[in-house]
Amino acid sequence: MLANENRHGQVQASKNVFSGRIFDVVQEKIKTPDDLIVERDLVKHQPAVNILAITADDQVLMNAEYRVGVNKEAIAFPAGLINPGEDVLAAAKREVLEETGYEIGEPHIMTTVTSSEGFTDEKVTLVFAELKNKAPIATHFDEDEYVNSQLVPLQQVIEWVRTNKITSSQAISSLLYYLQFIRK
Question: Secretion signal: which residues (predicted)?
Fold first, then answer.
């Protein structure tokens, strides 16, 4: 355990400067645990879920979806926002079905990650589940998304991480967590 682990700052003032569909930006004045007074911009982001879905014979459900942050289709696991009041595991099931047309069995939370603590409070829960079907049933995309999904052998996914074809931090974290702590 680190000596100063988990000490919290005290928000002394907060002002909303932008409100968007997925996130808000606030400017905060904070007294840090070291008694410094600092001003920071914070991206307040809805929580999200990232799902590593895999078949019994090691086929991983992968998505290619346009992502504005990299201005191209990015290869990653199914993922999405958790709706207000929605349970994380229910969100995982919903997102996989909506984006890919596949159904998953009982999902299990692996861990929760933060993407960039220096400016955002976004938390992404990493979930593992076995796929129930090897072919999609039907997709139900949000009106502003289109996702290409397919099953990819696990060893190929590992190679894509190694060769930088997969750059999603959530996907890489999910895969490494699975390989280290779940896979037998």
Answer: none
Contacts of 33 (CB under 8 A, 6+ apart): 4, 7, 8, 9
Q: Is residue 2 part of a domain?
A: no
Q: Which two tokens stand for residue 25?
A: 């930006």
**Same-domain check for residues 40 and 96:** no
Name the phi and psi angles at 71, rounded to 5: 50, 45
110 with 169, same domain? yes
Residue 3 to residues 37, 46, 98, 101, Cα–Cα distance (Å): 22, 31, 45, 48
Q: Which two tokens stand for residue 154?
A: 């696990």
How far apart CA 53 and CA 137 sit, in angstroms, is 15
For the segment 128-159, what is each residue's pLDDT rounded down to a tens digit? 999 998 888 876 656 666 788 999 999 999 99
Q: Specify if 72 maps to a domain.
A: yes
The first and second tokens of residue 75, run together, are 């290869």
Cα separation, 77 vs 75, in Å, equals: 7
